Amino acid sequence: MNPEVVTIGLGYIGLPTSALIASHETNVLGVDINQNIVDNINRGKIHIIEPDLAEIVSKTVSNGFFKASTKPTSAKVYLIVVPTPFKGDYEPDISFVEDATKGVIKLLKKGDLFIIESTSPVGTTEKIQQLIYSTRPELKGTIHIAYCPERVLPGNVMHELVENDRVIGGVDEASTQKAISFYRKYVNGKLHGTNARTAEMCKLVENSSRDSQIAFANELSLICDKADINVWELISLANKHPRVNILQPGCGVGGHCIAVDPYFIVHDYPNESKMISTARNVNNYKSSWCVEKIQNEKLQFELRHGRKPKTALLGLAFKPNIDDLRESPAEYIAQKVLQNSNNDEHFIVEPNIESHSVYKLTDYKEAINKSDIIVFLVAHKEFLNFDIDDDKILLDFCGTMKKNRWI
Ligand code: SAJ
Q1: What is the mean pLDDT for each group of 10 consecutive residues in the chain (407 residues)?
Q2: Residue 204: CB partners within 8 Å, gap ≥ 6?
Q3: Which of 117, 203, 210, 326 to mutate to test the pocket of ligand 1 (most atoms within 8 A of CB)?
Q4: Is 257 a catalytic residue?
Q5: Coil, strand or helix at 8
């Protein structure tokens, strides 16, 4: 196959993006360092759970438009969709983006389009431009380089990839326009052109904004707990105001985006990002607060009944109705609660995964029936409107029941 598009990274975003492009009868070569992922995709199978993705991958692989490999080959468009983790002390690590770039530098030729989608600190695209031109100076000014962050919601990726607006920032105007005309073939949403630095910051700001808004809701939940006010009712009433839209408190903020991206700003602009950094701290603190509430309730039960309670911890994923445990506050809470305590005092429940590397999972109905204390960590659909005996103690940190004493 002579691919028109090479995507580097076949994860939560790279794989759906590759499949979408291939579904438009464009030859796509998806590249990943993991041989198992590559083999799996070439058999038409997928390694992540995402609605509608399996069908599109199976179809595009079987009709020959989508192929996977561990090595890139020459193409017209290169999309970098690899992770950008931290080194320690929340210092962004762009080495995967650099390595992916190094892997295609020798393949680049005049007229090619090189796009980074990976969430990146401001200035990354310019650094990568330097990297390309320092290795291949003869290409200077002849290729197009742009940054276009993904902004899809896990669980709704195939729809949002097509329908969401995109922000596209080139290292120069010609690059911006070339990238816009590329995405126009696959995206129905509006395509907004800007420069690379603004596009990079835009991605970080979107998720920092959501993190700050969730922090506000989480802070309210702490205040309401002290003030003996039902925070769910309070928020629903405040939101009746035409210009107020408060989000929902939870057991913390997880996932590989909102709990992570704000640090890209805080690390690079520590003196200017006080609010963004405080929001992170509030959301992290909310998880520790939940651990304390659970420990406290277990202790009180023991004092009252002269025996240790059985406790059901409901949900491990980072948000409702998904199987993704990345940066999950619920998993963190379970780990803390189980530390130094007897495992058979607890039932761990996660209906969206079959098994966990550390915990034995229990069916939610069994866990609820057999427990004295029921802790709602994630508002999975299975847990909603579930009738629970009055004699059980409920700790609802995610608003499943909306009426309990704790939030
Ligand atoms: N959460 C709350 N209360 C709320 C909403 C969410 O506590 O009212 C929690 C969730 O339980 C979860 C975390 O926040 O732990 C994040 O969940 P989410 O649904 O807000 O977002 P993600 O991480 O699944 O996806 C986000 C999205 N960004 C925004 O909505 C601004 C998505 O569009 C991005 O593409 C994605 O991050 C990403 O890849 O950056």
Answers
A1: 96 97 98 98 93 97 98 98 91 97 98 98 98 98 97 93 98 98 98 98 98 98 96 96 98 94 97 98 98 97 97 96 92 95 90 94 96 96 84 93 54
A2: 119, 121, 122, 261, 262, 264, 265
A3: 210
A4: yes
A5: strand
Find all residues with CB under 8 Å of 272, minimum gap 6, and list them.
none
Show Cβ contacts of residue 205 under 8 Å, excluding neighbours closer than 6 positions. 265
Q: Which residues pair with 79 in a beta bridge?
A: 7, 115
- In 3D space, the residue among 290, 293, 271 whose CA is nearest the CA of residue 332 turns out to be 290
Q: Which of 67, 148, 178, 203 is catalytic?
A: 203
- Residue 404 confidence (pLDDT): 47
pLDDT, position 403: 54
How many angstroms does the Cα of residue 211 sit away from the middle of ligand 1? 8
Closest ligand 1 atom, residue 254 Cα: 15
Quote the pTM value. Answer: 0.93
Q: Hunting for tokens 């005996």 — which residue is that?
A: 389
Q: Are strands 166-170 and 144-147 parallel, antiparallel or unpaired?
A: antiparallel
Give the separation between CA 29 and CA 75, rounded to whole angstroms.
Answer: 9
Task: Please state the atom number of ligand 1 nearest to the C-alpha of residue 160.
Answer: 33
Structure tokens at 188: 């129905």
3-state secondary structure of 86: strand
Using the CB atoms, write b or e for 264-283: b if 16+ within 10 Å: bbbbbeeeebeebbebbebb
Query: Is-contact 184 191, C-beta < 8 A?
Result: yes
Q: Are 406 and 344 in contact (CB under 8 A)?
A: no
| The predicted structure's pLDDT at residue 49 | 81
Residue 402: its pLDDT value, please? Answer: 63
Say which amino acid occupies 143: I
Atom of ligand 1 nearest to the CA of 253: 15
